[in-house]
Amino acid sequence: MVRALQSADPRSTPWVQYLLWRQGLNVARFNFYHPGLGPALEELPPPKTPPTTPPPAGGEVDPPTPKPPVPEPSSFLVALGMLGAGIWWRSRASRSPTRLTAT
Q1: How far is it, in rounded angstroms, from Cα 73 to Cα 61?
Q2: What's the CA gap between 63 and 61, in Å, rounded?
Q3: Is residue 59 part of a domain?
């Protein structure tokens, strides 16, 4: 933990990210149960934001390509399939199991 807090970017380590998440759930409770760790996490430098790329010279940004719509089955076909499966299951359950007889 000490190595993670003393690294160049301590917020990028998974252990520190987890502790910050846990502290964010209930700060007072976390600081009560971890009196040394709570203040150390609060003294961390703010997170580094990645540099943003400037828009093209023309100022126009290409819109994201739309995803094609996914067709959904009709409700009638789904209901018919479920009804057929139910009828098949009941007819199968009502049959007596076949027994092999030794001759």
Answers
A1: 36
A2: 6
A3: no
Assigned domain for 62 exists:
no
Q: Could you give the CA distance from residue 22 to residue 29 in angstroms, rounded to a whole number?
A: 10
Predicted model pTM: 0.45
Dist CA 16 CA 37 (whole Å): 10
66 is a domain residue: no
Tokens of 71: 């067709």
CA distance 1 to 16: 8
Q: Profile the chain (103 residues) by mean pLDDT over runs of 10 residues.
A: 75 86 93 90 79 67 79 91 93 70 62
Residue 87 phi/psi, 5-degree rounding, is -65, -45
CB 16 within 8 A of CB 5: yes
